[in-house]
Amino acid sequence: MANVNIEDLELLALDIINELPEISEEHLQALRQNEMLQQLVEEQLELRGAIHSHLKEETHSEERKPELQVSRHPLKRYIGYALMAAAVFIGVLLLVVKPGQNEEQVFTAQDQKTEIILEPADGNNNEMTLTPKVKGQTANISLEDYRELLSNVPQAEKMTLDVPNGQSSNITLDDGTIVCLHPGSRLSFPVKFTSTERVVMLEGEAYFKVTHDTKRPFTVMTPEAETTVLGTEFNVKTSTSLTEVVLVEGKVSVKPKSGESTLMKPGEKISVANQQTSLEEIDITPYKFWGEGYLYFDNQTLGDIMKEIANNYNMTVEFHNQQQMNLRMRFFADRNQDVDAAIKRMNDMKKVVVMRKGNTIIVE
């Protein structure tokens, strides 16, 4: 197909349309190998659709002269047939763009536990756990929830909240601070904060709404850095060798394991990797929306958007056209609703075709 010129492709597109709703294996193979051919067939169908609409308007006023309709518009019946066949062709496209060289898997569902677990971290391998009730995708855990758990293990001084991929959790700590944990995150915290400090340990990502207390700074410990505040809203994301802190409100001090502290202002993100820090200004809107229960993206690539959606629901995502991954768009969805609601919202925008097959999201 590489040496076929545009005129030959146009003729081939007409041949394919003439075959609808049946289509030969040879032409199916041609469609698989040539995106330009797919586009030409689509354009031909759209053109015939426009002609059909125009003819329909004209013939509507001549309903009392059926004999003229046939003589003036001999192609009307054929065009109408081609329009009905368009739906078949769309289905064909979904089949011919099969997984292969043009497919990209941007996120793979994790085969692991699916329950949010809160358990005492007493060092004695205590098996007492609390599995909170989940409404939608998020579990809201109150002080009363884990105090009830502690009634059975009064010796425990710390708790661990483990959130698997596909779910999220909001937990209220002893001082009233609310922590919104992303999927695949883990938070360790004391049952009761001391009189001088408030320290928690984070693996993964979380949005913090810290209760103001000038006498007791609040510190988030990660492998790369310590983030200390008195009372504010901020986001922390950590991995094996990277910690990112985004300040939404108030003031935050970020200190690498070895090095000097950096004082941040709202709208800034600091990254700490290998004890090196970098500071930049960013749009904090997505982080604020996360804290309120929404997935929000503005001028983000579809590839990045689908990664976040996949992580939120623990689903595999496949792109059957890699070019679609670079499409930039604005999108938001209630992360507490199921994945079908997010897919419907994406399809309603009419920029891409998204479907679900089992635990896989497919983007055409």
Description:
The two termini are 22 Å apart. The chain is α+β, with helices and mostly antiparallel strands. It has helices at 6-19, 25-33, 35-60, 66-72, 76-96, 143-150, 285-291, 302-313, 339-348; strands at residues 104-107, 117-120, 138-141, 158-163, 168-172, 178-181, 185-190, 198-203, 205-209, 218-221, 225-229, 233-238, 242-249, 252-256, 262-264, 268-273, 276-281, 294-301, 316-319, 328-334, 354-357, 360-363. The protein is elongated. It contains 9 helices and 22 strands. Helix 1 (6-19) crosses helix 3 (35-60) and helix 3 (35-60) packs antiparallel against helix 5 (76-96). It has 3 domains: 6-96; 117-288, Jelly Rolls (Sandwich), CATH 2.60.120.1440; 294-363, Phage tail protein beta-alpha-beta fold, CATH 3.55.50.30. The strands form 4 sheets. It has an 8-stranded mixed beta sheet with strand order 2-4-7-8-10-11-14-15, with helices on one face. Strands 3-5-6-9-12-13-16-17 form an 8-stranded mixed beta sheet. A 4-stranded mixed beta sheet has the order 1-19-22-21, with helices on one face. 31% of the residues lie in helices and 31% in strands. A hairpin with a 2-residue loop joins strand 16 (268-273) and strand 17.
